[in-house]
Amino acid sequence: MKVELIIPIDKLRGMLRKDGFYFRMYRGQQIVQSTPTKWKDTPARKAAREKFAATWGRRYKKVES
Known about the structure:
Blueprint (H helix, E strand, L loop, with lengths): L20 E6 L2 E6 L8 H15 L8
Antiparallel strand pairs: 1-2
């Protein structure tokens, strides 16, 4: 979301409070975004991570001889 700040404040970067939003500059415009949330480590997510590691993690490793 684009933000228009009051005159004494030129630009903001980072979080002001722990309300779930942060400020940043993008191409000369002030932007307000919601902060990303951390993912919960569920059993399904853990199983998918292990399956990915088993499939792709060992496939391209260099074999030392």
